[in-house]
Write a structure and sequence with these properties.
This protein is mostly beta strands. The protein contains 1 helix and 10 strands, in the order αββββββββββ. A hairpin with a 2-residue loop joins β2 and β3. It is globular and about 45 Å long.
């Protein structure tokens, strides 16, 4: 019985902690965490959150879907890993294997296996290791 209560308390703490990661989605570039499969706090730094099992971020009218990510909460930045897809207005625009976002600069960097998608969904492989752009 005590074990069951401890498990419920642990699940509640994980739920409350995940709600605290949400940042306001304003034109200042801050992001909102829409979905996370699993959230784990760093043992070394309470500012760092490890996300896995499917993650969705929202920045203005763009969504970023990734397999996993690391959020630096105090700095309003994240790095996404795995298959990272960028959707704008509901349509995929880019994909990559890694992405890095800095809120204060409203700056995104796509890295590794970058592809772009036209309005019909046709994929074009981009033959550069990094693409950087500002969200303004």
């Amino acid at each position: 019985m005590l074990r069951c209560i401890l498990v419920l308390v642990f699940l509640f703490v994980v739920y409350v902690t995940s709600a605290q990661v949400n940042l306001k989605d304003k034109k200042d570039g801050k992001f909102t965490l829409l979905k996370v499969g699993k959230l784990q706090n760093s043992l070394e730094d309470e500012n760092i959150k490890y996300l896995s099992n499917g993650v969705i971020f929202k920045i203005d009218n763009m969504e970023i879907h990734a397999d996993s990510a690391v959020i630096m909460v105090n700095d309003n930045r994240f790095e996404a890993f795995g298959k990272v897809n960028f959707y704008k207005n509901g349509k995929i625009n880019f994909s990559s294997d890694r992405a890095y976002y800095r809120s204060e600069a409203r700056h995104i960097m796509l890295m590794d296996n970058i592809s772009s998608y036209d309005k019909d969904g046709t994929i074009s492989k981009i033959m550069v290791p990094i693409i950087e752009f500002d969200i303004n």
